[in-house]
């Protein structure tokens, strides 16, 4: 609103505290307390271990505070990142071209065969379609694509505009499925419905509907079989983990969803165990499989030497077979002997450095805290987009005193806390990269935009090497000091 004074339009003066509140933190290594402005309503999503807030549980899983510029993505994006790596599926986005363009090859997942998933298809809705409806255009697109590519399964994603105009995705997909004799599954992922977490759940429901009940005839197997949930094979991580399991005497039926195929997904109910890497995206599916088919699940993490070794042992203990336990220890001993000397070199160079972590899921954040300790670094700020209450309880237990813990942070908070905490490095995703670089802080991508694996023992070496290369780069001596705490 403009105020008119003497014929001149001026904006009214208002204090920042009208929509912000101050919270007091103790900077790590600092001499005293420091006030940090938080958007009104955000105080419950920020805690500092060891200070007055530590007895209060952090809020999580809630909707983003209006106006905070959340780093979270939309429902459509969440569904897309989970389903996109299904390699032989046809993925059709029903909406404007921008939605398909934004998420084309969003996971960048590697595959060992079919590559149809890397083709981007959209109904490209225009103004006329939005006014008169896009169902006819969707039906025509399905006819053309199914005839041309002959996929075994089709995923059709709704977007915001489709949810608004009310196109009947279910009816169009059902008609196409009956016409061509293949599953054509609507993914009800209108972005405005909620956050990325809702998209994960929507994708899990779609995957669950593809899974067939196991046949009643008894299956005799020489080796136990598992499903590996929550690995999207960004840079071959799923292949690394499968190689460890094979040496242990355990077979993998399907990876949800990195380098997966429709037929593999269909027989997921025949597995003896589900293991979950990314709990944020796949915990819901694991629960549904346990409820429907009584398949137990374990939460694992193959990030870092410590967590990789413990996860392999956890799987071996579950099957409780002496041969598997013995082979597991042999695998761990061989890998540790190979990677420990190189990691030790990086640890010497990185000792005393400080890291900030902002990632999607809580379990990844937990593993990264441990992994940084393996290379001699302290995590001084840690946050997630979709962390659960149990994740934050573990983070609170293992984090050092003074660590800032955030849920659903915004860019202003991340920048301020990185400077206040004296971070030398930020680990995050593509949206966080510019925040670090403009502050003169090193950055490591732990999300989609990379082509070197960070899982397993080899991944631990790659991570240590990348952290060392970026933190110890001489470029920072030319830019350090360019931004001070008072500038934000």
User: Average pLDDT across residues?
Assistant: 87
CATH fold type of the largest domain: Rossmann fold
**Uncertain segments of ≥5 residues (pLDDT<50)?**
1-19, 29-33, 482-488
Estimate nothing, just give the exact number of structural domains. 3
Question: Tally the helices: what do you get?
Answer: 18
Give a short account of the largest sheet. 6 strands, mixed
Number of strands: 18
Measured by DSSP, the beta-strand proportion falls in 15-25%
Family: Belongs to the NifD/NifK/NifE/NifN family.
Domain Nitrogenase/oxidoreductase component: 74-471
Function: This protein may play a role in the biosynthesis of the prosthetic group of nitrogenase (FeMo cofactor).
Pathway: Cofactor biosynthesis; Fe-Mo cofactor biosynthesis
């Amino acid at each position: 609103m403009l105020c008119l004074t003497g014929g001149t339009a001026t904006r009214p003066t208002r204090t920042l505290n009208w929509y912000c509140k101050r919270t007091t933190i103790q900077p790590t290594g600092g001499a005293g307390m420091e006030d940090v402005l938080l958007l009104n309503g955000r105080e419950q999503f920020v805690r500092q271990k060891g200070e007055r807030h530590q007895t209060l549980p952090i809020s999580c899983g809630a909707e983003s505070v209006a106006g905070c510029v959340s780093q979270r993505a939309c429902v459509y994006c969440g569904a897309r990142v989970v389903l996109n790596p299904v390699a032989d599926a046809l993925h059709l986005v029903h909406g404007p071209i921008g939605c398909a363009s934004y998420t084309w090859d969003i996971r960048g997942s590697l595959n060992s065969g079919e590559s149809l998933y890397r083709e981007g298809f959209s109904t490209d809705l225009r103004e006329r379609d939005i006014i008169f409806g896009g169902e006819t255009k969707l039906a025509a697109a399905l006819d053309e694509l199914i005839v041309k590519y002959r996929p075994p399964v089709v995923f059709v994603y709704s977007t915001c505009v489709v949810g608004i105009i009310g196109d009947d995705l279910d009816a169009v997909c059902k008609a196409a499925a009956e016409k061509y004799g293949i599953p054509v599954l609507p993914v009800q992922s209108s972005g405005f419905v909620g956050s990325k977490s809702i998209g994960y759940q929507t994708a899990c429901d779609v995957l669950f509907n593809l899974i067939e009940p196991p046949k009643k005839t008894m299956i005799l197997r020489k080796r136990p079989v598992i499903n590996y949930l929550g690995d999207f094979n960004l840079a071959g991580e799923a292949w690394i983990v499968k190689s460890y399991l094979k040496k242990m005497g355990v077979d993998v039926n399907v990876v949800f969803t990195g380098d997966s195929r429709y037929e593999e997904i269909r027989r997921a109910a025949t597995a003896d165990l589900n293991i979950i890497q990314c709990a944020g995206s796949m915990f819901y599916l694991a629960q549904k499989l346990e409820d429907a088919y009584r398949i137990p699940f374990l939460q694992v993490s193959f990030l870092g030497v410590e967590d990789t070794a413990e996860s392999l042992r956890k799987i071996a203990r579950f099957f409780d077979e002496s041969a598997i336990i013995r082979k597991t220890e042999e695998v761990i001993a061989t890998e540790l002997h190979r990677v420990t000397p190189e990691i030790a070199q990086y640890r010497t160079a990185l000792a005393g450095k400080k890291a900030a972590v902002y990632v999607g899921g809580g379990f990844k954040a937990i593993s990264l805290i441990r992994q940084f300790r393996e290379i001699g670094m302290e995590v001084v700020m840690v946050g997630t987009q979709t962390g659960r209450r149990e994740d934050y309880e573990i983070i609170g237990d293992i984090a050092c005193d003074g660590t800032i813990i955030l849920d659903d942070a915004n860019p202003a908070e991340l920048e301020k806390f990185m400077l206040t905490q004296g971070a030398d490095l930020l680990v995050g995703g593509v949206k966080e990269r510019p925040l670090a670089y403009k502050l003169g802080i090193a950055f490591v991508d732990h999300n989609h935009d990379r082509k070197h694996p960070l899982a397993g023992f080899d991944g631990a070496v790659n991570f240590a090497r990348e952290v060392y290369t970026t933190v110890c780069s001489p470029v920072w001596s030319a830019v350090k000091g360019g931004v001070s705490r008072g500038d934000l």
